[in-house]
Amino acid sequence: MTLLSATGLQTVYGEGCSRCIESTGDRAGTNQCPHCGSVVACAEADLSVREGEVLGIVGESGSGKSSLAEQLALERDPDATTTGMVDYDGYDGNLLAVDYETRHDLRTSDIALVHQHIRDGLNPEFTGGGNVAEKLLSAGWRSYEDVRDRVQELFEATEIPVDRMDDPTSTYSGGMQRRVQIARALATDPELVVLDEPTTGLDVSVQARVLDMFRQVQREEGVACVVVSHDLGVVRLLADRTLVMRHGHIVESGLTDRVMEDPHHEYTQTLINSVI
Amino acid sequence: MTDQIMTDEPPETVEYQLRTADESSVATDGGTTVSSDTVDGETDAVDATLDALESDGLSGYNYAYLDEHTKREVRRSMLKAVAIPGHQVPYASRPMPLARGWGTGGIQASLSILGPDDRFKVIDQGADESVNAANIRRLAENTAEIETTTDTTDADLIQTRHRIPEEVLTDDQILVLQVPITDALRKVDPSDAANRRRHAHKNYGKMWVHLYENVVEWGEINISSRYPTMVGGRYLMDPSPIPRWDVPKLDDADNLFVFAAGREARIYAVPPHTDVEPLAFSDREFTVERFGGQSCHACGSTDTYLVEVSEEAGDTDRETNNTDREFETRYACNDSSFCAKRRENPELPKDHHLDRGGVDWGPKTASETTGSRKTAAGKTKSPGGEAE
């Protein structure tokens, strides 16, 4: 069953004009409108995520992956003009048009985002446990012991040393901070988790362990996921289906195996050849 | 043109200006040597002006020191604060004849609602005798022609710094609390803009994390003052630096509480019979201070908020100049006026002035405590039990 479907997602930085969309994208070979100078971060993007499914989004830097992910995760950039329609199973109406409070509630209980930058997602002054507990407390948990038990359970599931639970997050290593973010995202059993570049700044062995852990937790919890990465390896490991983006447009989509083995679009072919 | 101006001004001023003009012309005519007559003349003129002011007394000021516009502004903010319990209402805080942070908000609130028939009490951390309290009382006495009192039950308006009196307040009374920091959330985020957004959306997750981490560190919530408190199930409020002991008194009280901050120019209020709930976990409850069964050394009370005082033992011989003088730690009631009453009558309950029983005021109700006073030593006093 479709959990989330999006049609015509578009994010424009700048004033924008009537010719922005036709003058950018794959055909034009740029994401900046030659007429008004606005940057079309993503446009004409349609996608859907089924329950428990992992959708991968790949593309080079500046291809609009993060803009798309932020829209799906209800993250708002005040500088951008966004349009489009997002249908979510648990909410009646367009997700992009919700008010602050509904958005806050949905972000607390239904849709979680693991930020690309740790600073955006975690409060370094709080303890690691406190960062995870914030999600539970915001969702209305009022028993200290319950919160404590749940945080401990999440730390074990995400393979963070439980002894370090009460240390400030700023003292954690990069890999641990990433795990705390994942633990925090999973705390309230959301329906959808959006991971924005989950392996940024991690070395290869830590990357492998974080991804392995996440794949296991994702399968156990059956949570749907959108994974954004420039790294084809990450998407190949996690995603059931993959979208390839370039110049703000989706240029190819399909089952991950099909995209990897039989890329149709010229850009996807280059991308895959450059990796393997 | 000069004539024009002069005719516009009141006659007294004209006379004065004419005279000084004459005298100054005399002085310049006299060259460099200034005659003593001239100096005396000038001094006389100044003295006369000062005398005129002096005889005016404080009638030169508006009633209750503040001008009517200011009072109206403060009252209007107070009404708004009463309408939205716990919400911080901005007001135009005026400069006062003492530094901001010394009770300027409280004074503006008190003087705005004082009337000639009111009896005014000022306490500073439980004491009527502190210099600041005495001076605020005197300002009100001089400018508003009101009577002052130190008896809580006798006062119509009580201005207080960091305490709520032990004796039960009634629906005829208003308590004005001086507030140094208005936003409870500032502890977890210094940005007022972000905190206002949090208040608007009742988004207090960050404060809960603060409490969670407090329990992680200490085993219980050990915020000593400014305990974050939910008002009417909607706004998180900083109850000013009252001890935890006083926080339960805010809940469902008969009287109005007005919180006024001069420096931050904010007024907020807890109207009578409002639900006020200190934030706490269902399994880590809010607790008040514990005194380990101690009683006040002066009146013997065990059901009042006690403070520790380090004093020389009673009969030390000062003459011998003995440097090994013993100091002992004693406990004393913080509310000095109630302590004085208890010294007269040790069994005096906190609701002695009320007709009805079962008044819920503070950590222990008066009816519960009257029987167990003094004998309660050794028992834990707090409803929340021992620390873990």
Automatic annotation (TrEMBL), chain B:
Bias (Basic and acidic residues): 343-358
Superkingdom as given in the UniProt entry: Archaea
Record's keyword terms, sorted: Lyase
Compositionally biased region (Polar residues): 23-38
InterPro entries with a match to the protein in the record: PhnJ
Pfam families named in the record: PhnJ
Region of interest: Disordered: 19-43, 343-388
GO terms of biological process kind: organic phosphonate catabolic process
One MF term in the entry's GO annotations: lyase activity
Name of this chain's protein: Alpha-D-ribose 1-methylphosphonate 5-phosphate C-P lyase
